[in-house]
Amino acid sequence: xxxxxxxxxxxxxxxxxxxxxxxxxxxxxxxxxxxxxxxxxxxxxxxxxxxxxxxxxxxxxxxxxxxxxxxxxxxxxxxxxxxxxxxxxxxxxxxxxxxxxxxxxxxxxxxxxxxxxxxxxxxxxxxxxxxxxxxxxxxxxxxxxxxxxxxxxxxxxxxxxxxxxxxxxxxxxxxxxxxxxxxxxxxxxxxxxxxxxxxxxxxxxxxxxxxxxxxxxxxxxxxxxxxxxxxxxxxxxxxxxxxxxxxxxxxxxxxxxxxxxxxxxxxxxxxxxxxxxxxxxxxxxxxxxxxxxxxxxxxxxxxxxxxxxxxxxxxxxxxxxxxxxxxxxxxxxxxxxxxxx
Length: 341
Hints:
By secondary structure, the chain is of the alpha+beta class. It has 9 helices and 12 strands.
C-alpha cells in the first residue's frame, strides 16, 4: 500500500465511524417507527445510551480496523497505532464540538441541507454526552492519558523523526482539543446586564462545572431549579435548589428540594442557613424590576428573558437588589442578583 493510501485509510478509520454510526442508528429508529408506528423503542433506548453506544462502537471499530491495517508491521509500531485508534475516538466528542462551533458560525440551522444535518447530529450528541460531570471527567481523563502515553512512546521511539509521523500530529490535535475545551466552552448565563447594572451569579460554576453547564445549554438539559426564599438581611439571600427534575404531561417537575442555603453578597460565599430569622419576601413585577436592567432580547417578549421554574423576583429589604431566576431555552437556569441603583 502506498503512503498516501495508508494515510487516507487511517484518517477514514479514525474519524468517519461516529458519523456513520449516528446516521445508521437514526435510520434504524426511523425504520422501526415506520414499521411499528411507535416511538417506544427509541424512547426506551434513550439519548444517554445512544451517546455512549456511539462512543463505544467507535472505539471498537477503529481498534479492530486499525489492527487489521497494521497487522504486518513490527509489534511495537503495531501497538502504537492501536493505542492511537483508542485515544482519538475518545477525543472525538471534543473535536466534534469544535466542528459544530465552526459550522454554526458559517451556517444557521435553518439553512443547512438535509445531509449536513445528519452529520451535525453527532456533534450535538457529543454535546449531550459531555453535559454530565461524571461522563465528562471520565472521557476527558481517558483521552488525556492515552494520547499523552501514545505521544511519549512515539517521541521515545522516533526521536528526531517524530516530525515526519502523521500520527504525531493526529495525537497532538486530539490532546489539544481536550485540553483547550474548558477554555473555549465557558459558561454564559442566559441574560446579560446593561451597562451600569451590577449582576451576580449565585453558585457561579467553576472551570469544569462551567464546561458541563455550557454543554447542557446546547443539549437542552434542564438541570437543577432555584427557588428564592427571601432576604434574611440586606446583603444575605436565602434560597434552595430543586434537583432531579423530569417532564410529565403537565410540564416540567422540578424534583426534590435541597436544604436552604445562604448567599452573602458582600463576600460571595455560600453556606447552609443556620439562622432562625424569617426572611423578607417582597416580590415585584419582572417587567418593571428586572427587564429594564437586562440587555434586550427581542425574541423573548415582553420580558426579554425566560424566567426559571420559580418565576417571581424578590427584592431585598433596602430595595437595592433583586434576586430572580433566568434560564436558557429548554436548558439550565441560574439564580441571579442585579442592582437597582
